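Sat 14:20. Reprocessing the chain from the morning session after the first attempt stalled halfway. Input below, unchanged.
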Amino acid sequence: MKRKKSKSQNRRTQAGNLSRGGGKTLTSYTVGALPILDRIIRRARIEEFLREYLREDQRCRIPPSRGTIVLLKNYLTSREPIYGVSEWARRHAPDQLGLSKKQVETLNDDRVGRCLDRLFEADHTSLVLATLTHVIKEFDVSLDELHNDSTTLTFSGDYEDASERLKPFGKATRIITWGHNKDHRPDLKQLLYTLTVTRDGAVPVNFDIGDGNLTDDQTHRDSWDLMCQLAGNPDFLYVADSKLATEKNMAHIHGRGGRFLTVLPRTRAEDKAFRARLSQDEIKWTPLCQRTTSNDQHQDEVSIAEDKAVTRDGYRLLWFYSSRKTELDVKARSKKIFRTIRLLDDLQKKLRSPRTRYTEEEKVAKALKKRLSEGGAEEWIKVEIERREQEKFKQTRPGRPGKDTDYRKEVKIRFDLVFEVDHTAVARSAKQDGVFPLVTNDNDLTAQQLLEAYKRQAGIEKRFSQLKTDYQLAPVFLKSVHRIEGMLCVYFFALLVQALVERTLRQGMEKERLDHLALYPEDRKCRRPTARRMIDLFEDVQRHELSGRGVRQPLRFAPELSRVQKRVLHLLRVPLAEYLD
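Finished this time. Tokens:
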């Protein structure tokens, strides 16, 4: 009895027969992780909301909503510059991009740029709010705890026209200018990028773009108000860094029935008073818990101060001591001291050089101040500038010196540095190692629950890291300033899709009781798979089509997927047919 051939076997046989004739063309398309990403994008209904909020132009061969989705898929998989998107699209199967072959051929950087124009023109706050309202229901994302933080995005180029607000399409642009740069690039102009994510999977739920010189403490009230609209009520824990801990910010949230958790700044009087008591050994600590750090490599023993305290505003104040933070503080201080000593050694060599340019004490003091600031260890190093007279005897007349030669004495003022580590200051600082204060208006959560909520702030740092490494966002260069805001909106959707992929995959692993997947080279274990790792796993997946004379419809040859790839599709609830059909 003959076995019935499968569809794929029939296609291969047919292709072998056709390839014997002439005029046949075999075309290979990259598929990669596009079917997976497309499924998440469709579930999130991102294109539908783009179509609703972006002004469509009937003359456009590619609608702005569809062009934005193409750009989104590019950012997720390849991160090509705008001028390289068209070439990238030609390597991929048109149907996976939602385009026809003719539309792919007409795709260029100008059409992509016009999509960014429409995004800038649109009300992307309302666009994001509408999209996230659906995403939260569709993916059952919890909003019980939200984390907010900001970073700076640096830009290459002068951007002279960005120093004042322009109004393309009747909408004011943000100002790209200098400010406190968190990437330690004071030489570059910047924008402030604010992000809010959930505790549940670190899913981004809001973003905002501010002027380059905008301070973080001015962003929290608007962000919190918007999160109330999204959640439908103020009953969520809003976690942020010390910039939240201003009188106006905390009163705004507390007065509207909200809950917050933040770090008390070092500038507050309560902080100085506690540390003064700490240096006098007046603080008693009680063991609170033992925890494992997020990378599972270190154990952390945490204690809490016995004395109950409140801020001058009447909010709950808790002081913690962390053994792991103590280790990190010691390393950080040693690193700063070593770096500062190296900078001072370098300055000292320049001062002692016969051709030194530092001949005035004012210049020496300025150079010393600069190096102490760069090193960051000014409080732990004693430095003095020594003034020295250097005598030199010179012949009064030219010629070979002899017994009757007359000499005149010349005195030059030289400067030198004398420095050493201030061990008393180091010991005083060491008493404060590992200590940090948290302030909250929540009186129901335990100290350990508040600590764990604060530690989950690392989730938003991971999103910023992905923004600048995976997507290579900084530094940025675009000709049109207003298009930058459109581009940052696309990057927000990229972070959203990436977070949903990771969350869905990890939930699938938990449901299947899998503690790892073999996603690393040589089938090494991956316990917490990321979207980037999943995308790389499918990077080489291709689809082939045979067309030409004698072929009514192109023959499509589906890719052969590995066991691990099929397992990932199963965990993500992506039908295998998305790749085989």
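Residues 1-21 have pLDDT under 50 and may be disordered.
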